[in-house]
Amino acid sequence: MRIEWEPTIRDDDGNEIVPDYLCEVDCELEWDNGEPAVSVNGVYRGDLDLIRSGDLLAAVLGTRIASMAEDSDFIMDKLLASDGAVWTGRGALDPEGAWRRPEL
């Protein structure tokens, strides 16, 4: 699934390097022992997959965005909604809660 996203790339000190970089993240939802995880297949700017670009700067930027997408609540929420998965707990920290997926 391609998701339009505008991450802000920051350095280790939190300083903005590239603000609101518009791109599309091609990703899917994977399940690891009942827990959802984001798997990124590509990061696109137009038709160009930045990760697989022959340009070093584009490839590094794409890899950085892919890493950010794997940790993004925005991306995770979009994928969970698309999958139809729901949390069955009474709250986010409910130890008896679990993710439920629709029957396939």
Task: State the main characteristics.
104 residues; alpha+beta; four-stranded antiparallel β-sheet; two-stranded antiparallel sheet
Protein architecture, described:
It is a single chain. The protein is an alpha+beta fold. 25% of the residues lie in helices and 35% in strands. It has two helices and eight strands; from the N terminus they run ββββββααββ. The strands form three sheets. A four-stranded antiparallel beta sheet has the order 1-4-5-6. A hairpin with a 5-residue loop joins strand 2 and strand 3.
Helical element count?
A: 2
Distance between the termini: 18 Å
Biggest beta-sheet profile: 4 strands, antiparallel
* Overall pLDDT level: 92
Report the radius of gyration as a whole number of Å: 16 Å
Q: Helix-strand pattern, N to C?
A: EEEEEEHHEE
Overall helicity: 25-40%
Structural class: alpha+beta
Net shape: elongated
* Record field, number of beta strands: 8
Unreliable residue stretches: none
Classify the beta-strand content into a percent band.
25-35%
In spatial order, strands of the major sheet run: 1-4-5-6
